[in-house]
Amino acid sequence: MKFRVQKRLALVLAVASLAGALSACAPLVLGGALVGGMMVSDRRTSGSQVEDEGIELRASSRIRENLGERVHVNVTSYNRQVLLTGEVPSPQDKQLVEQVVARVDNVRSIVNELGVLGNSTLTQRASDTLVTGKVKASLLDAKDLFANSFKVVTERGTVYLMGRVTQREATRVTDIARGTGGVQKVVRVLEVISEDELKNMGGDSTIPAPQ
Length: 211
Fold this sequence. Notes:
The protein has about 210 residues and is α/β, with parallel strands linked by helices. The protein folds into 2 domains: about 1-35 and about 120-200, no CATH class; about 45-115, Histidine-containing Protein, Chain: A (2-Layer Sandwich), CATH 3.30.1340.30. Helices cover about 45% and strands about 25% of the residues. A hairpin with a 2-residue loop joins strand 1 and strand 2 (about 35). Mean pLDDT is about 85; it is low at about 15-40 and about 205-210.
């Protein structure tokens, strides 16, 4: 089991690194899906995936225009729900970031998890990247989950989980994340759907739960 997880982690980190290197050129195709592009298979429509990419780009740009380099803000959008993570120097800046993002077209809701403290160091951000990779590797290794159904974000050791999932999947992915080394806390930013809704979306809800 440990060897399989290590192999999965190596794959996740390698793909993430290669996708980043290619992002200015062309998307990477892996297993029939575009990695680093907008069309990675998940439970959003292709239009929603494109919309989320646009929200992230526009929101990040406007944050830089309004607050400059004094803040470190990561914007993650899933099904038009925006998660804000990172650090800002004051409560006023935290509120201003949210106001700026709220004015971006198509934003449905905002979860503001910005910390009022100094910007994280490169070492801390590298550690968070490693934790994210480990959680994704564990999801890939799980036999009772679809890894592409989840978005994983890590900030200062806190793992945020996003996606459209059933209650069983939400409970299972939380347990996996909590059991991953380096994870200090798990926050669920999940849209819970019924098994019937999943079937109507063309998903497979028949994967057995772990024994």
